[in-house]
Amino acid sequence: MTVSTFRALHHGRAAGDPLVLPGPWDAASARVFADAGFPALATPSAGVAASLGYQDGSTPPGEMFAAVARIVRAVSVPVSADIEGGYGLAPGELVGRLLETGAVGCNLEDSEEHTTLKDPHRHADWLAEVRAEAGDALFINARVDTFLIGTGDPADAVARARLYVAAGADCVYPIMAPSEVVPVLREGIEGPINLAAGPDKESVTELGRLGATRITFGPRLQRYAMEATRELAARLRE
């Protein structure tokens, strides 16, 4: 499946029918999700980091790109990759290394080390450079971190999202947005909106009803699997 087909999956969707993209953390989990019939996947940086033995945000870029490449090779569906804040790479190098993995899209966040929000205008300019380097070859999902470390004001999130869409982002991702503000975000943001759900059908259904275009899970599926493994280990130890 090409990036154009992946991009098309985000448009023309019926209300309450979001695009659901599970987050594989390695090749084996990617195969499980692809075999279940999902049309595409979206890696979580925190889940991949955990699978490699790192804390979230501490994965060396070479290891992250290598992990994404292994996931892409393992499945026949398209994969979008969470590459955090871009690892300080120049737009041309960032795009080149991402395309080498075979990924068709990426998440790019607007905070530094999950502690400080970037200036939205400078970040929009940087996103525009990434778009210029990638052309139509990448689906850019611009993460908005105002609910994670900022004011939590929906107006701030909408303002940032509009700048990022104008810069060429295909989708915006107001991570940690509470459900009660989703209608405000949906009204103020043009184009696809990505929201994060819990690992249950009810969470997915509710976010779709509120206006999510696309649903991902961050590291929650990896953590769910690890909790199940922990319970199994405890039973075996008994």
Percent helix among the residues?
A: 40-55%
In sequence order, what are the helices and strands, one letter per element? HEHEHHEHEEEHEHHEHEHEH
Low-confidence stretches: none
- Percent in strands: 5-15%
Strands, count: 10
Strand order of the largest sheet: 2-3-4-7-8
> Helix- and strand-based class?
alpha/beta
**In this structure, how is the largest beta sheet organized?**
5 strands, parallel
Q: Could you tell me the mean pLDDT?
A: 96
Distance between the termini: 47 Å
| Assembly type | single chain
Shape descriptor reads globular
Question: Which value, in Å, is the CA radius of gyration?
Answer: 17 Å
Total helices: the number is: 11
Compact summary:
This protein has 238 residues and is an alpha/beta fold.
Describe the structure.
Strand 9 (194-196), helix 10 and strand 10 form a beta-alpha-beta unit. The strands form 3 sheets. A 5-stranded parallel β-sheet has the order 2-3-4-7-8. The protein is globular. The protein has 11 helices and 10 strands. It is of the alpha/beta class. It has helices at 3-8, 27-35, 45-52, 61-74, 91-101, 120-134, 146-149, 154-166, 182-188, 201-210, 220-237; strands spanning 19-20, 41-42, 79-82, 105-109, 111-112, 116-117, 139-144, 171-174, 194-196, 214-216. The longest helix is centred in the last third of the chain and has 18 residues, at 220-237.
